[in-house]
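Box 3.1 A note on notation
Throughout this textbook, protein chains are presented in two layers. The first layer is the amino acid sequence; the second is a token string describing backbone geometry. Keep the layers aligned when reading.
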Amino acid sequence: MKSALAAMLDPAMLLVRAGVKPDAWQARVLRSRASRLLLCCSRQAGKSTVTAALALHAALSRRNSLVLLLAPSLRQSREIHAKCMALHAANAPLLGSWGKAARQTRDELVLGHGSRVLALPGAEATLRGFSGPGLIALDEASRIPDALYAAARPMLAVSQGRLVALSTPFGRQGWFWREWATGTAWERHEIPWTLCPRIAPDFIGEERHALGDAWVEQEYACSFGALTGLVYPDFARAFDDSAIVVPGEPVGGIDFGWRNPFAAVWGVRTRDDVLWLLGERYRSRTPLFEHARALPRKTLWYADPAGRTEIEELRAAGLKVWPGNNTLSGGIAAVTARLETGRLKVARGACPELAREAGLYRYEAAGSETPLDRDN
């Protein structure tokens, strides 16, 4: 009974009882109490083992709990489920009848006290009919479609269950990258190959020789691999997790649009000339008067000088708006200078569309001085 209680209080003990010594990072993740966990992992780091232990612990800890294991394919989710059942078998002698397996198949483990662990493929339709999960685990999350992620989140609204997403990167695209770059309320863990004692430097050297640096950086070093030719390749360094109110002069910028979205960003410029971006508005087919109502009123705005009529309309609505300097080369130089000197900060999660476009905005071709306009 004491051993079973220890496993309930410390999920890492589920691995220890199965003869697996958890890595330091695995123990930290398993002992975390965060309701939202985001793990960016190297290949072969042991993330599936962590997922299996989290799933089993969630099922054992509360009667009638529902645990959903999701991956891009049913084969992948079954692999995690198989590890979960192996962990359960190793710990079964320590459990009472409540923790014994009442039923187990390749896709389902049902415990004596009513908890279930289910392996599901990564398709939105597979989530229909389930409600109130205690844990949703998304493995290889960077390959899971946005629609499935969007369908999974509301399921936790009533149950207040946990959401855990684990993956190697898959470029600067999709919900996993967006949440890693700009999402809020997540506890993040980055696990490169250097934190996995089973991966030798010689092996990484062989991979670099065979597959190239870019592949190794993505698959083993937790790099999301910027597109080639990005105008702002180091934009991610501007993201800041500080949850402080930054004093300074309220300033903002506006780019007018109708079909091409109206875009505005705003923040403050501090006394030492650090520009903090704290919010954005990004809307298509929206009347200007609605934008005027939504924009911060104490901000000094700099707008696209081509929109003279729009500037006057915003002024009439009580906003302080001046024509800005929108020369392309000058703007790129100004942003680049701020990035290089650390004078541009973006509150993480405050400007998701800006973050997305910064990860896409690139030059037309190698050696070109003209960026593609579609992500400007």
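The domain at 235-375 is CATH 3.30.420.280 (Nucleotidyltransferase; domain 5). The chain has two domains: 2-220, 235-375.
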